[in-house]
Structures are given as C-alpha cells and as structure tokens.
Amino acid sequence: MNILMHACCGPCSLGCIQSARGDGHIPALFFDNPNIHPYTEYEARKASLLEAGARTDTQVILHGGYGLRAFLGAVGVDGDGRCSVCYQIRLDETARYAKAHGFAGFTTTLLISPYQNHECLRRMGEAAALKAEIPFWYKDFRPLFQESRKEARRMGLYMQKYCGCIFSEEERYLTRG
What domains lie within the chain, and their CATH numbers? Predict the structure, then answer.
C-alpha cells in the first residue's frame, strides 16, 4: 500500500520508513510544517529530510512553505493548546494531499517521538482521516526512536534540539536553569 507520511525531519523519518517497508507499505515523505521556527531551522529540517529521502530511496514531497504567521494565527500568541492545533493543521493537510494524490492512507513520523503527545496525535490523525475519507495508519514507532537517531548520526543528518515551534524553542532555553 502506498502511504503518505507526514515528516518533520530526517532523523525521525528513518525508523518510520524502515518500519513501513517492513509492514509492506511504500512510503512517501510529506514535508508540511508551518510550525517550525526560525526560518533557518525550517530550512535545516527540510534539507535533512531531503537527504534522508535520497539515502533511503524515498520520495519527498515539499508542500506549503514557511508558515509562521499562519501557525501563530491558528494557535494564538500565548500558545495554549498549541500541540493539538499544530498536529491537526499538519495531519489535515497530509490527509487531504494523500486523498487527492491517490495514496491508500497516511501517517506521521511524529509517532516515533517519545516527546510528542502520542494519544493526541492518534486522535488528530483519526479526525483528519474522517474529514478526508482516507485511512490513518496508526503505528507506535517509539520503540524505533533511539535506533533512528543513531542512524541519523551515522549519516551526518542535522539533529534538532526542540520540537520546532517558537514556543518549544522558548521552553528549551527557559528550562536550562
């Protein structure tokens, strides 16, 4: 089954690609991340994903663009509840694209991260699937997280230090103590 994988970066995609192929799927990576800030981080993650795609012989679809203003408009300036809104924005767009371009289903590489709200991701994926009328392929990729990061280091891929949004970047620095 051809499956569209929303992808946030190269390192997270590696384990998901391998797992999907092991389950008989043909994955394509979908980069649509209006949440990532600043622009240099957005470009670094995009380049990392393109490199991962090239090294794993996986199609990468670049969709949308740097969308800070639209993202902030959707989540609000205080960022309360931002994660569910952020997941929904990205998964809705992934589902729409998958349906319009003949994919059999969709998923997200965010499901590999132990730092993401896994149950919220699942709910948002299922909601996007209902709206777009295309199956959401749920899989808990978290057991592959460390191996995926190890492989990314071996490949020399850019490794991000925070979720990606301006609020998580702020938290990164505020929690340093």
Answer: 2-174 (3.40.50.620)
pLDDT at 105 (0 to 100): 98
Compute the distance between CA of residue 31 and CA of residue 143 in angstroms, rounded to an integer: 23
| Token output for 91 | 């998964």
pTM over 0.90: yes
The number of C-alpha atoms within 13 Å of 125 and in the hemisphere containing its C-beta is: 22
Contact 116, 155 (CB under 8 A): no
Answer yes or no: are the C-beta atoms of 5 and 109 closer than 8 Å. yes
CB 18 within 8 A of CB 144: yes
Please, which residues bridge with residue 3 across strands?
27, 105
Q: How crowded is residue 177: how many other Cβ atoms within 10 Å of its Cβ?
A: 3
Omega before 38 within 30 of 0, i.e. cis: yes
